[in-house]
Specification:
The complex is a heterodimer of chains A (90) and B (246). Chain A is α+β, with helices and mostly antiparallel strands and 90 residues long. In chain A, 47% of the residues lie in helices and 20% in strands. Chain A folds into 2 domains: 1-54, no CATH class; 55-90, no CATH class. Chain B contains 13 helices and 3 strands; from the N terminus they run H-H-H-H-H-H-H-H-H-H-H-H-H-E-E-E. Chain B starts with a helix and ends with a strand. The chains are: A alpha+beta (90), B mainly alpha (246). Strand 3 of chain A pairs antiparallel with strand 3 (237-243) of chain B, so a sheet runs across the interface.
Chain lengths: 90, 246
């Protein structure tokens, strides 16, 4: 069940505007656990992102369901979408 | 003969550029303003340091009374009278330092009136439109609407694109979806303007990247060259996280 949930969730990180040096140093300091797109400024621009961090949460159909959620709200948003997925699978 | 022919062919092309130059001249040379602004900012920094160094609230109060803006005001007004639109913008942004609340609103209104009348074609006018349409406290909504409508009638080219962009934002800020139509108008009627680039991003944010929309695919690479795509995660709940250290 837990395993299933992990497969059902993905994080797509897009780093913008940092130099390679800053990125490598920052990633090390933060102990970055996931892969991130580097040099993603053009993507951010196309998506109309004006500040960082900016987060979009997409459901399994790829539809944007939440924007600019943080912390607890983000956890809840992801949980809601995962629950929806399970309900429709049943 | 050849030269005349060449000229007849070439002349229609530079004509718009010449018209722009004329407009710029009418708007007024801003070099005197730039110099005065530098001088003001230097004075302001000195004053600010003095304020921060003040020992007690009494000292701070005394220094606050000597804000440099009122001292510089006559010189900015002089430049404004000589045709400097940037000086009018300065008077507006500093109005609260120059006058008490009610009079400040009056000062702003007067400066805006002059800006809309004479500086609509300035490259920096988009900034004025943004400021003006946020003055809900000092300018009533009907006046804002009327001013924008009037400007739309008069403005041409890039100036018109800027007014349309301002209208789009103003309507949307008031939760009126007709704003989207103005974005479309900028894109359709002034596709090459600087305002169109901004309009495209803002329009996309509200349509392609709105809640409920399926955003287009993107591809990127990690710092080590591994490819990451958005659509690679279809079927999963996906968090797209734009981040940066700076």
């Amino acid at each position: 069940m837990k395993r299933h949930k992990q497969d059902a969730f993905a994080l797509v990180a897009v780093n913008c505007h940092d130099s390679e040096e800053d990125f490598r140093k920052g990633a090390k300091d933060l102990d970055l656990q996931y892969a991130s797109i580097f040099g993603g400024a053009p993507i951010a621009e196309a998506w109309g992102v004006r500040g960082f961090p900016t987060v979009f949460v997409l459901d399994r159909e790829g539809k944007i369901r939440f924007k600019d959620v943080r912390g607890k709200q983000l956890d809840e948003a992801v949980k809601q979408l995962l629950d929806e997925m399970e309900e429709s699978a049943e | 003969m050849l030269l005349t022919l060449a000229l007849t062919i070439l002349l229609p092309l530079p004509a718009p550029a010449l018209a722009d130059l004329g407009a710029d001249e009418r708007i007024g040379d801003e070099t005197a303003y730039e110099a005065l602004l530098d001088e003001y900012e230097e004075t302001y920094d000195v004053w600010r340091e003095e304020l921060q160094a003040a020992e007690d609230s009494k000292g701070r109060r005394a220094i606050r009374k000597r804000h440099p803006a009122p001292i510089f005001r006559p010189r900015f007004e002089g430049l404004a009278d000589a045709g400097s639109g940037r000086s009018l913008v300065w008077l507006i942004t500093n109005a609260s330092k120059l006058e008490k609340r009610k009079q400040a609103a009056g000062l702003k209104a007067g400066c805006y009136e002059r800006l809309w009348a004479s500086h609509l074609d300035a490259k920096w006018f988009g900034e004025v439109i943004t400021m003006y349409t946020k003055e809900r406290r000092d300018v009533d909504a009907l006046t804002i609407e009327a001013t924008l409508a009037d400007a739309l009638e008069r403005a041409e080219g890039d100036a018109r694109a800027r007014v349309l962009l301002g209208l789009a934002r103003y309507r949307l800020a008031g939760k009126c979806n007709s704003g989207l139509e103005f974005y479309k108008q900028v894109l359709e009627e002034h596709p090459d303007s600087a305002a169109a680039k901004v309009a495209q991003v803002e329009y996309d944010r509200l349509t392609k990247f709105a809640i409920g929309a399926v955003p287009p695919e993107f591809k990127g690479k990690t710092i080590d060259g591994e490819e990451i795509t958005l659509y690679g995660h279809r079927g999963q709940v996906t968090v797209v996280d734009f981040w940066g250290f700076w």
